[in-house]
Batch of 4 targets.
Target 1
Amino acid sequence: MGRKPDAATKFGGGGGGGGAASPRPARRAPPSPVFLGTALFVLGFVSLFTGHVVTDADWSRIRSRWRSKQFRNNEPIDIWKSKYSSLYHACSERSTDFRSAVLENSSTGYLLIATSGGLNQQRIGITDAVVVAWILNATLVVPQLDHHSFWKDESEFSDIFDVDWFISYLSRDVSVVKRIPYEVMMSMDKLPWTMRAPRKSMPDFYTSEVLPILMRRRVLQLTKFDYRLTSELDEDLQKLRCRVNYHALRFTNSIQAMGQKLVQKLRLMSSQYVAIHLRFEPDMLAFSGCYYGGGEKERKELGEIRKRWDTLPELSAEEERSRGKCPLTPHEVGLMLRALGFGNDTYMYVASGEIYGGEETLKPLKELFPNFYTKEMLAVEDLEPFLPFSSRLAAIDFIVCDESDVFVTNNNGNMAKVLAGRRRYMGHKRTIRPNAKKLNVLFQRRNEMGWDMFSRKVKKVQRGLMGEPDDIRPRQYDFHEFPSSCICIRKPENTSVTA
């Protein structure tokens, strides 16, 4: 296929202009490979005398320190795939001493969970519900999905996820039933007790505050169940989270088939494709408190949407953007990707709902990447049965994004976190998280520099945010985004060291 005209020049690209780059300070030479071998030898030598076993974390720390300096300072970024991904593998298997599921008849009672939010927020709630059921020795009733949030989706669990697979896969860990047995319901003299756990609760909260009520009432419902469990659990419980999220939660056959059909269509057109979760819907922009230059009309429209949330504070749009809290515009996302090295012949799948500003907002991105596709463009009439259900549409987007060679997030929302974590777990597939704070400065100064300098600066600010195994983590990162307890390093066969 012939290369299409390059739109980067039209939107501020092209070489020349901006003057020569200022001299860079001399780089320090990377550590010699001898460093790695010496460190491993010392660690092994110490272990012989202390009884210490070289853990996956030990190996990871040593190799990542050596590798990260070499990678970040000297090696060019392969925009399609990490060369270090083969060093790691998923490891969420049960440990030999992890307690098996308590039988339904012997459990402390039935736990009802009512999730909240959209598909991926619900997914996080379901994942943590299984862990809470294990902590309580309870029987989990298949979670109820939120029908009253912004998305107004009436789908039940079994409409989105394969419920029989969910129950079967988790049978060794937690007893799960589709509904409370009739005889139990008939024997209850009161309705199930309902309570709401604080966010990010420790396991002790559930054993001290929730368990006594569950044992007394036999049936207990926890409402608004999202992020109701801390990210900092012991390794066995983190691995249980991974077994739920990456294995037990499987989409229904109809959703899976639709998602794979779109993937196959993209693969027939190109061997590689990039998926972007634009997250530039009106509700997202309103919630963020950001402003994008649309004048009084934009301020009024987003201000009206913002009234849906009673507890949101007053925000300064300028301050939020300078702090990196605003999603990039579709145009800015496109410029970042072109600067990183993706050509205008790259095939692009865009996952999103209603884009604020519609086609006018998308036009610059489409001109930068003419091979632009959405699920509506690829599926046409096949998508009709899914159209009334926002969660099922989101599930289709989830599949196509998960299967992509490169996934680009545009905010730190739940889909971005869940997919980033899943892609790390499944082999560290390239996942790009924009450094919005530093990119904002570059976009403001875009006209002051030539394209080559702009591209170099974008590549520099994006190092550590490209889906590498040793990516930079936020100060308070979410386990669902960085499931480190479930990712192990492959030890070299000739350097296995134990006491």
Target 2
Amino acid sequence: MSRKFLICTICCFLKLTSSISQGDSTTVKSYPFLFFDTYNKAYNMRLVNQNFLSIHNYLWDHKPEGTLPRLIFVFGHLFGMVYTHEAGHQNVLLSEGIGSYITPTWNKSGLAIVGGVMDNTLINLRDRNLPAYIRLHTGGLEADYGIIRRIKVDIALNNHNIKDLGPEYSTRIWASIFYLSSSTFKLYSIPESKDQLNNDIVGHDIWGYIKHINRPDAPFHRYIQFEELTANERAQLNRIAISSLFNLLGPGKVKFLVGGSKVSLGGSYLLTPFGDMFEQSIFIKKKNLKLQTDLRMYQNKYYQSIGFGISLFDKKISNNLNINLSANYWSQPSEFSFLTKQFKSGGSIDVLGKWMPKFTEGKFSIDGALHVKTKGFEPEEPFLSDGIYFRLGLTFYQKFKNDDSIPLSV
């Protein structure tokens, strides 16, 4: 997503939200946009994910009537799913200073690709930074995870109904599950072109991930075939396929009341640079309290460790300022090794402030965030190293009348 396109989008939102529906309203929906991140300027995974989801949600909340507009939305949504997935792969390259391009339609083989990279560049990345090379294969699924996680928070804490969220949530989850599950057998085979710049950077994401994380010293080629995998590697594929079903655990399906608090559960499964990760989330909402806790299990080939996180949303500091706070702890394999027995602790803190000046009349807030992390893997964070980073953005708000509002449920 280019910076010019983002600026045009923001201008359109300022125009559209200047005519908010008047009268008694039952809900206020928010559409957050990120336009600056010290990671990779306008091309990092978090920025692409956040802005795509806000555009999707706004268009779905203002659905046009008629068959043709709805068909345009569907095709636009499918295009966006492809683009955000491929941008997740590209983000890993950008964080390593490697240029590339996305073809988010389909190439001659019928698949979307990230191209523009020579074999020697990928070999060099594998040899000097194996965790980043492994993550290059799983970056698309990591982008899918980031979008799904945002939607689960909206369902659990912001009164969004699954039935009224549009196609993004269900199609993204089932597409991820299908992709992981279909990797357990040979569904298709794609020949590797002699034109290196027009080859996808990794070919089949999961087969490449499995082979390279187990046998990083094997002779290099991009398009790993199912026949190349050993029996143990195929068994690992089966375990990954079964584990992917954990993503179906969502706050809209598991919810209950505890002492006046609305509690719901969510689950996620994600491949990592050193193996994989299970995440169990508990969402708690009571009056103005919005709290999320996460218990994570990290594992490489033989060993497991735990991590946890806690996030507080929309804490009111004053009439014009809300903040979000999150803190995370992890114990992950040393040097992100798939085989090591050694694990190293780390963590991160994220503070997001949303300032709504009086002149905005409640239409938008100016957002600023500080993120501090130690060495470690965090989804949507391009760098595995430690660092201090800043983000800037805007959140637009729109009220809906009783007769126009989306049905509320938790």
Target 3
Amino acid sequence: MGCFSCFDSSEGEKLNRVEESSKAQKHSQPTVSNNISKLPSGGEKQLTSKSKVGLKTELLLPSDGQQISAHTFAFRDLVAATMNFHPDTFLGEGGFGSVYKGRLETTGQVVAVKQLDRDGLQGNREFLVEVLMLSLLHHPNLVNLIGYCADGDQRLLVYEFMPLGSLEDHLHDLPPDKEGLDWNTRMKIAAGAARGLEFLHDKANPPVIYRDFKSSNILLGEGFHPKLSDFGLAKLGPTGDKSHVSTRVMGTYGYCAPEYAMTGQLTVKSDVYSFGVVFLELITGRKAIDTELPHGEQKLVAWARPLFNDRRKFMKLADPKLKGRFPTRALYQALSVASMCIQEEAATRPLIGDVVTALSYLANQAYDPNKNERGGGGRLITTRNDEGGGSGSGSGRKFDVEGSEKDDSPRETARMLSRDIDRERAVAEAKMWGESLREKRRQSEQGTSESSGTG
């Protein structure tokens, strides 16, 4: 499924289409500037990107001192790498455009080359967002951007090649001779993808809202290691005392959070909803939207929600392609997490840090179908962020992954996760207090140093 506006928004942002003169095309090569200047607030930095054809976009980016690391390619280099975009190198199609496999002549590195469809839904703005985001944000669960090409009217992105394709390729429309993903691999992919979101939400400053989390945007490397890709729709999250970002509604139908689709108000909890939909895809093997199914089953969330209320129906939610090879208790726990993420009310959804903790546990409980370990035991774990910091750390919530039938139900686990809704506010206030204290100490030490120097 490609990216498109889920609903029209009266306050939608308009992409400016720039007319490129023939002179500009002939004599100039647009580049992305990395001129970073300090904002008056001192909290972030502003990056102004200008091309010589008049395109200008301003983005807030993390103030960690990093510089744009992406390499600039000439168009002829990528033509050579892909054998002139030969059909044999074609990998697939997305909202951005066509993707080709290539080999860089200078280094021999195998890469994926995405070429912007100039008639497509994403344009220069999304191109710049992707370059800037992936140049400054690095994590093992984010795809690595090697470089870009902005040669004349050509817009291309060059990524590391992910040999196993997308998660969507391994879940849906499988050929008869292709084996589906096993339970352990599904949990590993879910946990890794959640860690990518956690980095964007909790480690990036200001937080980054991915806005287009879906199975086709999760790419898989060796060993089914997942990485998030396609950052063209990413937005910087709210800062200060703001609770949300207002923006035009963009994303993919079936994955958009209801409050975002209806109001255009975007928060990190919007991404958590989309994650819940993808996690349901992993559990059930169904598409987010499947028009070939009966009317009441076409939208995955609407079909699954009633089944969450009856424990006796939980087994109906398991992907038939698993052929029963999964631990029953872990299935219930996974459904609990999915149920929490797709809550109608954004405030009742968990933070992604809590989701990571729960899924990391599930991913580490390897299931051996040969030992018939269905319904295996569990233990009590406490959610926390081992690396410290971030709005998702230190919640102290407990997941009873052994417990009773009542404790295993999605509704009960959702209640446990949502009982501390005011925690985010408390964490933010504590963070501000700590920063203020450190600043006072710094000023005091600086004053002491200056007085001793003059003495």
Target 4
Amino acid sequence: MSMPYPIPATPRVISPSPTLSESSEQASDGYFTRSVARKTRTKSPQPEPIHEETKDDGEGSDSSLEKRARARSRSPILMPASDGVLMNGSTKPRRRMSGLTSRTSSSGLIKKSEPLPTKHTATANGNVVPPQINGHLSPYSQIKKSWREFSRSPSPLGLIPLHRHYRTLIHKHEIPRKALHVSIGFLTLQFYTRGAQTTAITPWLLGMLVPIASVDILRHRWPAFNRTYVKILGALMRETEVDGYNGVIWYLLGALVALQFYPKDIGVMSILLLSWCDTAASTFGRLYGRYTIRLRRGKSLAGTLAACFTGILAAWFFWGWLAPRTGPFIDDPAEGFMFKGVLSLPSRAREVLGWKSEEGVLTGTAAIAVMSIATGVIASFSEFVDVFSWDDNLTIPLISSAGLWLFLKAFGG
């Protein structure tokens, strides 16, 4: 049945495309298409590329190098608008790179030293209004940043200026520090070949320990002097020593104990292990530690094996080659050497095994080989173990000298 009043078709209205002038002024007559709206949107500026230095991987006895945290995040941050409009006239939040673009109070943005806005400071449209400067001191101004005033270097803490300019040479591989470390071992051998006794060296060690420790205490109480000290000796320091005590103090203290309270050969060998094994462990740990398993924080299998192998070579060189060709000297003590080229099982162990008195005894090359292997194991253990977080310049000579003394006390002929 046909309707008496048919429903007319819905008219189709086609909106004319606005001209360029209309699109820029957003056409006051109301005609607006999606293409024009897309063009009128203000695009956020692309952040500038970040130029950072290449990250240096590596492990060593210093543990800090491996794990470095940035002081500020470099992820893009959307900055809130002030009254709905930003500096560039757009209503879209502008993106900035934190740490690369400074926030100014003239732009109506929040400064770091100002307190965070609360919900009472928000306007009706949801935009956050930053608090106004009231003339009071910022709470951040009361925080002393003395250790950050030394430099802004890319090193983990940024304390030593030389670590910035010579990052690979000084900070990563510690070439000057390791050169000094190794040279002390050769200096010890020089004293030994000249017939110097431990009782003549320990007073010199004590004479150096007192002024160096006094200067270290003074620089921690005088920041200006500390900054000068770091600038001059920064190439030989680690960043943990800026606010802590210098490793030379622990080096001298460990060498003093080893030479004063142990026989001559034990004291000399403990210093050689400190000088050479610790350096080898740090060098090979930084170079190849990432390819081996991690034994504990800052210690890898590569570094521990390097310390063991270096200890074996040092013991074979000293007891197998240098000592038999040097001395004896006139003023050598009667019991100056614990290792006399003979190793044997304890008498109690031979009785349990039913061996005769001449059995279970090693002499010559076999004794030197066993003694060298034992020295390498003791050296790697002293370099690996952590004793109350003490400096390894102190723990290595203490543990190695005690370990060698106990081993020769049990198996020495």
